[in-house]
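Renewal narrative, Specific Aim 1. Our central claim is that a sequence can be written position by position from structural information alone. The example that follows is taken directly from our test logs and has not been curated for this report. It begins with the structure tokens describing the chain, in the order in which they were read.
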């Protein structure tokens, strides 16, 4: 058996001490963290462009009903998908040391779970048909069920790469998988397969990731072993999984209710608005999130460095994602027209109503997940997510009678009111303070609103939507940077980030 990762290897924190003693500019962990973060950001930028281009083309090849039809199934299969890893990838990454036998045991547990989920998904197909009164869902659900086995086979291999902070490799894999899935989806759409193009694209990407993970790690799992530590890892993974399930349900109850009450066409409109407004959050937050979780888990006992690493990572996410969401809401008309086409004009008001909710989700993700999970506080994170889910459920029930716009407005109001209590609950008793988060948040938020408003007024008379969007984006970036640099005096933050990046590229 070829084992390509060191199971009781020297920890990156120890390496960082050696690097510091030898007079290097930054310790090994910091260098690998920033390298991984930069790689993930560039990779997510590439994936963002690819997904946006794919959405633009598919929106012109398929109807809202076809998008909504697949969304009816992916809400359920996405829920089942949360159990594929059972939180065991997080358990592998979070541990200071892990053995080959432990990872092998977790691999076979993941495969058992994948088999159960595949069977459960097949059994769910008749229920979906009856619930939505849509017979086409039967074969779509059956096709999506096969993905659970393939995905389960790659969970621990990907976790090995994450644990070793090999995010350059992971990013390359993700971009390649995205390219293959897009190519397959477009080929199916052009060939006239309709909604099956979306199904094919959804299945191919994760399958490519699994194949690449096996090929790169060259790790072959051994037989499962009894180990006292496995129970602890399963307990941690269970808490993470339950939280993921609850969070997924909270963030998808709006789609389930809307699809049931208003049908696939209304869900297709709402789903595209949700996809557009959440794209920046999905790409950048996920790019920084896993890197931050991996690095923070290694230094969880070093309070000073932990606080510094967390706040810088949180500031990077907020500084990049918040302006993009605000800009997208201010320029919603042009964004929808360029990305989706004129026939999707109904998406515009929904996108604007969802923007405050998207901003709140960005601000709470870091404290809820990479802060609490890296500190081993998965139980508290679960309790917070349960409370968050109650807020979402009440908002959706109140808003669904008013259609997509009602749900979007109700969710945004509820989450804005929930923001500060949520953050305060997360940081209680940790190295991070509520004031740290609020100080990090208010400048990018206010700067984004001011910069987007200025750019909107400045380009309002430009005739072409594409011209308004491009010029408005350039002006918004310049204005936002000027406000951050001169008004909010964040010069040191950006210069420090630039110095770190320069040193990384020199070291490379």
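The sequence written for that structure reads:
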């Amino acid at each position: 058996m070829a084992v390509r990762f060191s199971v009781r290897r020297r920890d990156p924190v120890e390496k960082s001490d050696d690097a510091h003693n030898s007079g290097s500019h930054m310790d090994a962990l910091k260098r690998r963290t920033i390298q991984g973060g930069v790689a993930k950001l560039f990779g997510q930028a590439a994936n963002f462009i690819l997904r946006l281009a794919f959405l633009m083309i598919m929106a012109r090849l398929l109807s809202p009903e076809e998008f909504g039809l697949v969304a009816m199934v992916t809400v359920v299969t996405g829920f089942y998908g949360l159990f594929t890893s059972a939180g065991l990838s997080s358990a592998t990454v979070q541990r200071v040391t892990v053995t080959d036998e432990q990872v092998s045991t977790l691999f076979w547990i993941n495969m058992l779970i994948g088999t159960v989920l595949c069977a459960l998904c097949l059994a769910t197909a008749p229920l979906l048909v009856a619930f939505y009164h849509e017979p086409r869902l039967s074969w779509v659900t059956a096709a999506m069920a096969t993905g659970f086995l393939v995905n389960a086979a790659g969970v621990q291999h990907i976790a090995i790469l994450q644990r070793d902070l090999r995010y350059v490799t992971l990013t390359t894999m993700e971009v390649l998988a995205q390219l293959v899935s897009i190519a397959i989806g477009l080929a199916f759409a052009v060939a006239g397969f309709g909604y099956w193009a979306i199904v094919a694209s959804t299945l191919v990407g994760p399958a490519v990731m699994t194949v690449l993970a096996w090929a790169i790690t060259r790790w072959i799992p051994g037989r499962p072993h009894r180990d006292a530590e496995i129970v602890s890892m399963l307990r941690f993974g269970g808490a993470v999984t339950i939280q993921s399930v609850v969070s997924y349900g909270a963030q998808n109850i709006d789609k389930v209710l809307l699809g049931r009450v208003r049908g696939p066409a209304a869900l297709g409109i709402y789903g595209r608005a949700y996809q557009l407004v959440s794209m920046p959050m999905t790409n950048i937050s996920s790019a920084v999130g896993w890197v931050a979780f991996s690095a923070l888990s290694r230094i969880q006992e070093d309070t000073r460095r932990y606080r510094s690493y967390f706040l810088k990572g949180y500031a990077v996410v907020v500084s990049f994602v918040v302006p993009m969401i605000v800009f997208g809401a201010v320029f919603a008309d042009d964004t929808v027209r360029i990305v989706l086409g004129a026939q999707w004009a109904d998406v515009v008001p929904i996108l604007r109503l969802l923007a405050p909710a998207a901003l709140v989700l960005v601000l709470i993700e870091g404290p809820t997940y990479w802060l609490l999970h890296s500190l081993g506080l998965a139980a508290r994170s679960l309790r917070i997510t349960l409370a968050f889910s109650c807020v979402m459920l009440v908002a959706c029930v109140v808003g669904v009678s008013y259609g997509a716009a009602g749900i979007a407005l109700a969710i945004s109001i509820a989450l804005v009111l929930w923001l500060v209590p949520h953050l305060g609950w997360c940081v209680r008793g940790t190295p991070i303070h509520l004031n740290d988060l609020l100080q990090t948040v208010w400048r990018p938020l206010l700067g984004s609103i001011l910069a987007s408003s200025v750019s909107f007024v400045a380009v309002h008379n430009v005739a072409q939507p594409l011209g308004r969007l491009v010029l408005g984006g350039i002006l918004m970036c310049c204005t936002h940077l000027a406000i951050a640099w001169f008004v909010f005096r964040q010069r040191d933050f950006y210069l420090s980030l630039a110095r770190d990046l320069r040193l990384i590229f020199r070291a490379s």
